[in-house]
Amino acid sequence: MELPGFKVKTVETKPNGRRYMLAGNETTGMTVSPTLEGIKPGAHAAECRESLQQKTKNSPVKVTDVRFARSGDFYVMQYTVPEFAGQRINQKNLFA
User: 23, 26, 37, 49: least CB-packed within 10 angstroms?
Assistant: First the structure.
């Protein structure tokens, strides 16, 4: 993953097996935090879409602008978290 201007702060494997990275760009004030997680071998596209939909239904924060698209063999979902703990953050989330 190429992130010009970003400094990697964390790269780790969580106890549930997910790989996690945190990087920030001091100039723009932006943070990127990709997470990689495994799926069941042979999972079908419909299962992937359902898994993505569950992320919005079970979210502990309000999500808006939920959008789904298909990119080749992948379902892609994006949404916005407009605020957290009463502060406007306008956080964009992307899952594939």
Answer: 26
How far apart (Å, rounded) are the C-alpha atoms in residues 96 and 88?
25
Helix H or strand E encompassing 95: strand 87-95
Q: Tell me the pairing of strands 7-13 and 87-95.
A: unpaired
pLDDT of 1 over the 80 cut = no
Q: Which of 54, 95, 55 is nearest to 75 (CA)?
A: 95
Cβ atoms of residues 56 and 66 within 8 Å: yes
Rounded distance between C-alpha atoms, residue 77 and residue 53, angstroms: 8
How many domains is the chain partitioned into structurally?
2
Where in the sequence is the domain holding 22, given as residue range(s)?
1-38
Give the global pTM.
0.69
